[in-house]
Design goal:
The protein is mostly helical and about 350 residues long. Helices cover about 70% and strands about 0% of the residues. It contains 11 helices and no strands. It has helices at about 1-10, 15-35, 60-90, 100-120, 130-155, 165-190, 195-215, 225-245, 250-265, 275-290, 300-340. Helix 5 (about 130-155) packs across helix 11 (about 300-340). The chain is globular, with a radius of gyration of 22 Å. The model has no long low-confidence stretch (mean pLDDT about 90).
Length: about 350
């Protein structure tokens, strides 16, 4: 009996992996900060505005490009390959870890360490050759994709679900792993591992997303509090980056993403009505306090929610169009086969 109770109380394997990954993420971010001073002597070009990425070498070489792109592509295809094999084998959700989970955790851990070494040896990331907007837009689409997928569970507006066809939902869920892996790994290799506050928070976020991607087909991958935390940390990252940029746009990120929490995210957590109303009151009170005396800027808080909610419908429309093209192509192939039969 005691042995049975002991087994019941033992933490789940996927939960242990999650907490181990979270601890690793913060410890490794601490390592980035600890050794970051070695990169301070690198001379960079002056910042020229929002479309300019500051942390890239003035004179890239063959090896700075080859290592950034080569390691990125290796990382990308390894994780895509593991996702493909997992879906091909039709493995089931479990509280344990599949062999493929261990391989994904090991691969992501290896490339995280490799990226730190690559930064200190060659510095440059993908930012040398691609626009800063490509990295930012990839993460925005990821967040919008989550809103679309979670609509069937928590709704989109104050717990109310938007009608989306089951076919679109299935398509979004079946292929989200490939896009999320691309958006995360591409953004991860876009930046060198420098130790500015914005980079440090960003890398913690990337590590957690890589961890989530490594735990595919486990129950913890679907845990509502864990998935919510990954959405919510965008508020922290965006606000911190804006504060250190000194352009007084931090309230747009804090209250914009905070509005997403009030409108959508908190309704998937099982909170009581009283708690939700208290959170609404806190959000409204903080908004009035921060914007007191600068009411003309109050429209900032609706920009991020407006873009993201509009993008949900655009993304659903894109999926509908893709599915329609696939059906048309399959129909044409069937007609051709019957014609020659």
């Amino acid at each position: 009996m005691n042995q049975t109770l002991s087994r019941v109380k033992e933490p789940r394997q996927d939960t242990r992996a999650l907490w181990g990954g979270i601890i690793f993420s913060f410890l490794f971010t601490g390592l980035i900060w600890l050794v970051g001073g070695r990169l301070d002597s690198i001379e960079l070009l002056p910042d020229t505005g929002a479309s300019w990425y500051y942390w890239k070498l003035p004179e890239p070489t063959f090896w700075t490009r080859a290592t950034a792109w080569g390691f990125y592509l290796a990382h990308q295809f390894v994780i895509w390959g593991l996702i493909y094999v997992a879906q091909k084998r039709k493995i089931k959700y479990t509280t344990g870890l599949h062999k493929l989970n261990w391989l994904a955790l090991g691969a992501n851990g290896f490339f995280i360490v490799l990226h730190l070494l690559q930064t200190h040896l060659w510095y440059d990331g993908l930012a040398q050759d691609v626009s800063i907007w490509s990295s930012q837009v990839s993460v925005i689409i990821l967040l919008v994709w989550v809103l679309l997928m979670e609509n069937s569970r928590r709704g989109l507006f104050f717990g109310k679900k938007v009608r989306v066809s089951g076919e679109i939902n299935r398509f979004a869920r079946q292929y989200h792993g490939y896009f999320f892996a691309w958006a995360t790994i591409y953004t991860f290799w876009y930046h060198p591992m420098v130790s500015t506050p914005g980079h440090l928070v960003g890398f913690v976020y990337m590590f957690l997303l890589l961890l989530q991607g490594s735990l595919f087909f486990t129950r913890i991958h679907l845990n509502k509090w864990w998935t919510f935390f990954q959405e919510f940390i965008v508020l922290v990252h965006g606000t911190i980056v804006a504060v250190f940029q000194g352009n007084n746009l931090w309230p747009m990120f804090a209250f914009g993403f905070g509005g997403m929490f009030i409108i959508t995210q908190m309704h998937g957590l099982g909170l009581s009505k009283t708690v939700r109303w208290l959170l609404v009151a806190a959000y409204v009170g903080l908004t009035l306090w921060v914007y007191n005396g600068r009411w003309a800027a109050l429209n900032e808080i609706v920009r991020i929610p407006f873009i993201e909610y509009l993008s949900v419908f655009v993304l659903a429309g894109i999926f509908w169009l893709i599915l329609r093209i696939i059906r048309r192509f399959q129909s044409n192939r069937l007609d051709t086969a019957q014609e020659y039969a």
